[in-house]
Amino acid sequence: MRSTQYTIRSIPPNLDKALRKQARDSGKSLNEVSVEALAKGAGLSKHRPVFTDLDWLIGSSKKSANELDESQKWINKLPQDLDNLV
How far is residue 76's CA from residue 16's CA, in Å, rounded to a whole number? Predict the structure, then answer.
């Protein structure tokens, strides 16, 4: 695989510390961890994040599907730009 070399300056101390810790803990090089962090930040990560912060909400509604559909229809009728109402 062909690659390009970067020189990155002005790394904040907290980022440097976090990357070095991650490299040490994972047994990877600082370069590997840095490239993975760049790829993840650019949306190119091989692993998709799994979000579980709203799992508690799923299935918690006591409303029927029809009631939820009616609520959504009502919401969709609201003005799109509420700033202009003031």
Answer: 46
